[in-house]
Design a protein that fits this description.
By secondary structure, the chain is an all-alpha fold. The chain has six helices and no strands. The two termini are 32 Å apart.
């Protein structure tokens, strides 16, 4: 029983850190896209709208339809705004993001833009997305570990 509970705790810790990595990388990608909205329109506008609305819509649909089990790390989940529904929505969106950026880059390679230095923009956005996702996941995982090791949970008033 103890091994099963430990495995579930480690899985939740991994899911919380992955969720935070996905969320932070999506926000960074949205900031980068915001500065490219006018120059790379119309796709950048539609992609920005998808990044903004998709997780919220899917998380609400999943919350109504599917019952997820309660988390054991409730205080940590609350600290990082984690719910299994939000994690599922972010994970689905991450596949769409990678696919859309690769297809967008391939399209730009067939029909180059008037502004030459913006031709590799989707590729750079994909690189920024992946690097920020990996870094944010690693940092959050370390922070969660330190949160429970240092017993910060007991210091709250």
């Amino acid at each position: 029983m103890q091994k099963q509970q430990n495995a579930q705790i480690y899985k939740e810790q991994r899911n919380i850190s992955r969720y935070t990595g996905l969320l932070i990388s999506r926000i960074i990608l949205m900031v980068c896209l915001f500065f490219l909205l006018v120059v790379l329109r119309p796709f950048s506008f539609y992609f920005f709208a998808l990044l903004l609305l998709y997780p919220w819509i899917i998380a609400n649909i999943l919350a109504e339809k599917k019952k997820f089990p309660k988390t054991l790390l409730a205080s940590c989940a609350k600290k990082y705004f984690y719910t299994p529904e939000k994690f599922t929505a972010e994970k689905q969106l991450s596949y769409y993001i990678i696919f859309a950026l690769v297809v967008w880059q391939a399209y730009i390679n067939t029909k180059p833009l008037d502004i030459v230095f913006l031709n590799p923009a989707p590729g750079f956005l994909l690189l920024i997305y992946l690097i920020s996702r990996i870094a944010a996941t690693a940092i959050t995982s370390r922070n969660i570990h330190n949160y429970y090791i240092s017993m910060e949970i007991w210091d709250r008033d």
